[in-house]
Amino acid sequence: MSGSITFSSVQSIRGSLMVIKTNGKLGYEELVEIELGNGEKRLGRSLQVSEDIAVVEVFEGTQGLSPRDVKVRFLGKPLELPVSNELLGRIFDGLGRPIDNMPEPVGSEELDINGKILNPYKREYPDEFIQTGVSVIDGMLSMVRGQKLPIFSGSGLPHDTLAAQIARQATIAKGEEFAVVFAAVGVPADTAMFFRRELEQSGALKRSVLFLNLAEDPAVERIVTPRVALTAAEYLAFEEGYHVLAILTDMTNYGEALREISMMREEVPSRRGYPGYLYTDLATIFERSGRISGRKGSLTQLPILSMPADDITHPIPDLTAYITEGQIVLGKELYHKGIYPPVNVLMSLSRLMKDGVGEGKTRADHKELSDQLYNSYSKAMDVRSLAEIVGEEGIPESSKKYLQFADAFEKKFMKQDPYENRDIDTTLNLAWEILSILPESEWTNISEKSKKVYMNVVQKRNI
Amino acid sequence: MKVKGRITEVKGTVVKASNVSGVQMNEMVKVGETGLIGEVVRVEGDSAYVQVYEFTTGLKPGEPVEGLGSPLSVTLAPGIVGNIYDGLQRPLSTIEGYTISRGYTAEAIDVNKSWHFVPVVKPGIKVQGGEKIGYVEETELIRHYIMIPPNVIGNLTYVAPEGDYKVTDQIAEVQGSEKQSISMLQRWSVRVPRPIKRRLVASEPLITGQRVIDAFFPLAKGGSAAVPGGFGTGKTVLLHQMASWANSRIVVYVGCGERGNEMVELLKTFPKLNDPISGKPIMQKSIMIANTSNMPVAAREASVYVGLTLAEYYRDMGYDSLMLADSTSRWAEALREISGRLEEIPAEEGYPSYLASRIASFYERAGYVETLSGDFGSVSIIGAVSPPGGDFTEPVTTHTLRYVKAFWLLDPNLAYSRHYPAVNWISSYSSYVESLSDWWSLNISDEFETLRRRALDILFKEESLRNIVRLLGPEVLPEDEKLLLEAANMLREGFLKQSAYHEVDRYTPPLVQYYLLKLIISFYEKAKEKLTGGATVEEIKASPLYLEVIRARFNVKSKENFEAIMKKVMEF
């Protein structure tokens, strides 16, 4: 990397932060290159600058640094990623440097990893249905192109399997395929390997870009990995016209890295030690998705985050869900019953579903069916918890149907194989099938028209 | 005199500048070579701290800082309605490309456009601030009155004859202690409420067409309301619904630190929706301010004041303005972030100690008033609150509750079962109920208040019965109590629930709200009679009329529709 050749001296080192002398030559959020006595080079970025000194975060960590034998060079620019469609098929580290033993891709331009703010006025409203082939998602949590829909999970749950299934199966009209941008943020190496293998086996690797910051890699680097990945994703989507699916896992590690830096800077913490700007910071990541009017591509985000102690009110999942367009919540209880994908549908939501489904998009009865399934399953959960207290005998005959319904919903509709790909018609017909366990007087969301047109199809088939 | 200094420190979006003595608190400044806009938030000796409204990447110590001599102000003139602005009133539609570059400047309105001005006064009279001297037709829905700016007083020596003028052209002249030229454009500092003659007691409802709000927890014109709710409880959809259907003359929607796609949704739907009263597209009465979550926080802090000032300006013409802010929590977080960067001592959860007073002065700008020109107008404020972790004891929610008079609590359990709007009918309240009940009896039906109480009574009783059911099951209840549970269910399904996306259901005029309540309560009364006659609850439920009454919300549009079902209920 070229840049100005100003050298500077280090005043102090604390955690992954360094205070250096600058004489006012270093700009805010600009890069520095740190050269150790043994010739090793590391990258850093300024977090605060004043006339004489600057606070710098060192991405590769400060281990082994000593103020005496370190030279700091100012690169005079923020962290940038060289972009071109040569990115596809490549693997990079968390800062965007190739780690696949191939030369650095030739970039047609270098982009600031912070991206630029999308003008809301120039956004196109996302309303194109993505068929994932997963019934519970397509039927009740439909995704659309350009949506940001995270998976909230817990340790031991199959979030990776589900994300990989979606990446494999997701199709968007007329056989178009997604380009996948995968960012590993502080996950174990085998998780990254798993995704790589899945992409490879499905033949998707050649239209994928991987950015890997693994658990063993420095935590500070995690702050930039999602941004580097999204810079690539934005470029591919809005400049090259790809439909991009960005998988970011695990964003909880990102939040923790942010807290670590904030603590070292002695900032006033808000909830659970996380900085007050956590919401805004996460928003600058998740808002980098969508569609733009007049541009061909789209950028759909599927972040994965583990809820510490399965607590959805933890600041990271909580603030994420305030930013994203819904959430897919996985539940241990269902998983223990042997149900995959174990989606807690009542806590899950896809905010953009309403405009992506219905006549001309999926099917005219889709919205009503989905509403009815939510409504009935929620009632069924009440009946189930009542039955646990008073026993099945204590509940009225009419309510017993709800117990049957709940079982069918979980075991027939929700449950499917990670390699089973159901089209939307199959999913919706299945919904009619389980709904017909309940008497029609309970179908408060279903219109007469849908009953006539669609239910008969299901009944005829059953006869 | 413009103050010029230089940057000595950059920390996030807070910049310290030296050599700026003479700069004022809240003065706008230009920062750095790229001319980023900022506001002075602290002055110390000849140094000042500037909150920059844009990202500061690359900014270096030594770069210039220049005072602009005035506080953050908005442009008030014809051409505002129908626009979408950022938090500093820069129009988003005029930016080239699909991203927003730093330091861009643009006029809030098209200054080259001509407007057809019609004078309503003649020279020779004494005028003072607020007086209407003429008007232009800004949109089909808004007659934009040109008013003497609030601080001007004197003799009107000139008024332009009817004709086409640009907003900066002189259209009047006032001779006070000095001669003042008046154009159609005036500016006002956003942090200062626009003056009024006096406050009045609100007695007319702001009809939103949302049944649970209008019928049970109404808002008065000039009132203030808060909508707290965790994520996914439907705050934004509810606010969008109210922005779409409320019977206010002007709607100012401030998307404050929320999703970009939500603003696009408004932009997409507003031109297609028609105002239920005038039949014209509601875009013609709407102003949007979008400061999405990924835009710099300082502008987010300013955006709510920009919105409020615009709402006040149209109120001064004698209109009812409605300002919606989604979400005030993000605004409060912006305050917290700025406060943190200034290293102020935090109070609760890192929020500055002045959080409560800021919230108070924000909601106090709502009101039903007599304007300076002697008209009646109002600003109503609806603020969404996003409590972290759904915790209603957090500072923003608790302080907001102290200052608003209507409170619509969104309940995650209702949202989980897809009961929308998820307004909890046990915990929500409105202090406007009594002052508005006369309006309902005079304009809708004198029976309405009785029906309303009856319905709430059923819902409250259901709540206590549900506790028993939860422990012992419904089988232990006698038939009349089982029937009450059914009545409550009908109220939930047939009245409280309202689909924002169903063509009929999304907006219910007050009269139809009365019809629906009347149908459900009458059905319940009839069913009670049948019960005494020996019927069971199961039999009553099996009647097709049961579903018909519940689904009436999708079908009843007129008196005839209502009477047809009512007849069946009476014969039941």
Q: What is the CA-based Rg of chain A, rounded?
A: 25 Å
Share of residues in strands of chain A: 15-25%
Structural class of chain B: alpha+beta
Name the largest protein-protein interface in this structure. A-B, 82 and 75 residues
CATH topology of the largest domain in chain B: Rossmann fold
The domain tally of chain B reads 4
Q: Which topology of the largest domain in chain A does CATH recognise?
A: Rossmann fold
Q: Say how many strands of chain A there are.
A: 22
Please characterize this protein's 3D structure.
The complex is a heterodimer of chains A (about 475) and B (about 575). Chain A contains 13 helices and 22 strands. Chain A has about 475 residues and is an alpha/beta fold. In chain A, strand 5 (about 40-50) and strand 6 form a beta hairpin. Chain B is α+β, with helices and mostly antiparallel strands and about 575 residues long. Chain B has 4 domains: about 5-70, Elongation Factor Tu (Ef-tu), domain 3; about 115-185, OB fold (Dihydrolipoamide Acetyltransferase, E2P) (Beta Barrel), CATH 2.40.50; about 200-430, 3-Layer(aba) Sandwich (Rossmann fold); about 450-570, Bovine Mitochondrial F1-atpase, Atp Synthase Beta Chain, Chain D, domain 3 (Bovine Mitochondrial F1-ATPase, ATP Synthase Beta Chain, Chain D, domain3, Orthogonal Bundle), CATH 1.10.1140. Chain B is about 35% helix and about 25% strand. Chain B contains 16 helices and 27 strands. In chain B, the strands form 5 sheets. In chain B, strands 8, 19, 20, 21, 22, 23, 24, 25, 26 and 27 form a 10-stranded mixed β-sheet that branches. A 6-stranded antiparallel beta barrel of chain B has the order 1-2-5-4-3-6. A 4-stranded antiparallel β-sheet of chain B has the order 13-12-10-15, with no helix packed on it. Chains A and B meet through strand 5, strand 11, strand 12, helix 6 and helix 7 of A and strand 1, strand 9, helix 3, helix 5 and helix 10 of B.
